[in-house]
Amino acid sequence: MAYRREDIERVRDATDLVELVAEVTKVRRSGRSVMAVCPFHQEKTPSMSVDAARGLYHCFGCGKSGDLFRFIQDTQAVDFSDAVELLARRSGVTLHEDAEASQRRDRRQILVDATTLAVGFFHDSLKTGSDAGGARGYLRSRGYDGTVVDRFAIGYSPPHGEALVGYLRRRKVPEDVMVTAGLAVRARTGKVFDRFRGRVMFPIYDVRGDAVGFGARLLEGGEGPKYLNSPETPIYHKSSLLYGLNWAKSEIVRGGHSVVVEGYTDVIGLHLAGMPVAVATCGTALGEEHLDLLRRFSEKVVLMFDADEAGTNASLRGFERSVPGDLDLRVAVLPQGRDPADVVAAGETDLLRAAIDASSPLLQFRLERLLEGFTLSEPEARGRAVRAAAEVVARHPDAVARHEYAVLVSRRTGVELEVVVKSIEAAVSGQQKTRPAAPRGAQPLQGVEKAERELLRLMLANDPGVRRHDLSGVFSRDDHRAAHELLVPVLAALDPGVPPDLGSLLGDDDSEVAVMLRGLAFLESPLSSADEVVRKVQVGALERRIEEVRRQVESLSPQSEAYTDGFEELIALERRRRQLASQE
Ligand SMILES: [Zn+2]
User: Fold this and answer.
1) 447-582 topology per CATH
2) Is the pLDDT of residue 324 over 90?
3) How far is CA 165 from CA 108, 174, 183, 407, in A?
4) Mean pLDDT across the stretch 454-467?
5) How far is the CA of 278 from the centre of ligand 1 (A)?
6) In this predicted model, what pLDDT tens digit does every residue of 425-447 receive, in sequence order?
7) CA distance from start to end of the chain
8) How much distance in Å is there from the Cα of 251 to the middle of ligand 1?
9) 3 alpha carbon to ligand 1 midpoint, in Å?
10) pLDDT above 80 for 163
11) pLDDT number for residue 168
12) In angstroms, what is the span from residue 292 Cα to ligand 1's centroid?
């Protein structure tokens, strides 16, 4: 259930965060500041600061932070609305339902429920299906017994195309839901069929533990790609999903690090080996969103590769630039040709621990690989090696760390430290000159662009306040314009306030715009007032137009007619901008 914003704020005002924290852990007050022993990681001396005035807490040990609702969610393992209900009871605030927000949540829940039914169906098919012998044999060959199969809810999708569809139909799941959840595909004839057939099914859960999709492995003799994953859906976003994180997150916080491996069976292998801190991406390369997600639980992230992959893994290369300074990204290398699943199956779990213990920072790892490529006995090669290494080291944001790496390069190459340091300094200033501006998508949006996103969110809710305005031409970004153009005809066919059916609108469209819209639709934060957001966006559009006209006018001769026209337009635009801005 979703509740009205005002009620939630009343609960917030009525609750003393310090009191709340003190109920579960030791709190020490000194003057105005309050420190608590962090309940999220093991410690004796308090490192969690509680700011009662702002209603926030932050742990300097493990990095956990949030407000009262987040605190309850994390200490009691409940979701947001449970936390609101619990605190409302505690403070005597009466809650009222927010019907619109509930509807959005319900849409998500319907897809999660259908996926959960599929998990159960595949699991039963594996255990009891007469056609699942091959799948059971494969799992036995991996060393998985019934306990493992149950623990990871592993399943089997029967090979004929209507097993799951038939089951879901009997459970009254509409066909559109099956298709939107990525469980079924619709043929040209309109008939729906199972997406996954004759495969071993690994259910994929989001960080909260909701079933959102599948990784499906081909069996010997089957056809198609070895692994088939769920398509992008409103609940399955591969760029921000990590297989295993739902099981691993608390141990990652406790143990202080996560391990990223390549595949589902590697994750399971590490869990079985007593290292339940492993996660894997789901059919995509590790990206910044994955790292952001992991960083919420621990800043130390170990990437585990076998020696071959690590040597050639080009995907590592992109990270040095993007990894934020507070992320300790390390590389652990397994012997050539071995992956974690094999190592565990062979009973050599010590090898995994040794590799993690011997892991080195990503940059150091890259440097060592780089230097291996040079014949360091030759003076020219040493020169080239130092210059190449300097380019890599120069990307590190911290000067102290750069110096440490200079020492390493000097030692490896035999080139004097002073020379290496100079070379790095030259590379740093060279990179500063040539460094392009950060890509737009990588940073949180600000100002007008942020308001445009919010406006799209209002459109997704078909907010009546937005429909009053003509918004053609007000968006500054191509993706926002495209989203607006997509939504306008859809909304025109609906009564104001009735949100469009995103499932049928976007289907399994994988485009950037579709992904953005789905992300926006599932944002939980309350919507801003339509008039306010529209005004901000319009002011932004006016400012861009003013700038454009001003540039035109400046390039014209003051005697020309165009100059006068432009000048008049400029004055009219300025007047309009002032009017809009004064409504603030
Ligand atoms: Zn902590």
Assistant:
1) DNAb Helicase; Chain A (1.10.860)
2) no
3) 20, 10, 8, 62
4) 87
5) 21
6) 998 888 766 544 433 333 456 78
7) 33
8) 13
9) 30
10) yes
11) 97
12) 17
Chain segment 80-96, per-residue pLDDT in tens: 889 999 999 999 999 99
The whole-angstrom separation of Cα 407 and Cα 417 is 6
Both structure tokens of 223: 């056809």
**Residue 436: per-residue pLDDT:** 44
Check residue 298 and give its pLDDT: 85
Q: For residue 275, what are its two tokens?
A: 């290292």
What is the distance in A from the centroid of ligand 1 to the CA of 298? Answer: 10
Amino acid at 445: L
Share of the chain above pLDDT 90, in %: 36
DSSP 272: H
- For residue 250, the CA-to-ligand 1 centroid distance in Å is 12
- Whether the per-residue pLDDT at 155 is higher than 50: the answer is yes
Q: What is the pLDDT of residues 556-565, one digit of tens each?
A: 776 677 777 7
Residue 339: band (very low, low, confident or very high) from pLDDT cuts 50, 70, 90: confident
Fold of 101-236: DNA primase DNAg catalytic core, N-terminal domain (3.90.980)
Second-level CATH architecture of 240-367: 3-Layer(aba) Sandwich (3.40)
Whole-angstrom distance, CA of residue 196 vs CA of residue 217? 10
**Total count of residues recorded for the chain:** 584
Tell me which long-range contacts 209-214 makes (C-beta under 8 A, separation of at least 24): 209/246, 210/112, 210/115, 210/116, 210/235, 211/112, 211/115, 211/116, 211/118, 211/119, 212/111, 212/112, 212/115, 212/236, 212/241, 213/115, 213/182, 213/241, 213/282, 214/118, 214/122
Domain chopping of the chain, boundaries: 5-91, 101-236, 240-367, 373-433, 447-582
Give the three-class secondary structure for 573.
Answer: helix
Mean pLDDT of the chain: 85
Q: Residue 225: what pLDDT? A: 86
Rounded distance between C-alpha atoms, residue 213 and residue 235, angstroms: 8
Q: Yes or no: say if 338 and 330 are a contact pair by the CB < 8 Å rule.
A: no
Tell me the residues surrounding ligand 1 (ion) with CB < 5 Å.
38, 40-41, 59, 61-62
The CATH number of 5-91, from 3.40.50.300, 3.90.580.10, 3.20.20.120, 1.20.5.420, is 3.90.580.10
Q: Which has the closest alpha carbon to 234: 425, 504, 472, 484?
A: 504
Closest C-alpha among 216, 212, 220, 213 to residue 200? 216
Q: For 493-511, what is the mean pLDDT? A: 72
Give the pLDDT confidence score for residue 231 in this predicted structure: 93
Supply 85's token pair.
Answer: 């209900």
For residue 487, give both structure tokens.
Answer: 């939504």
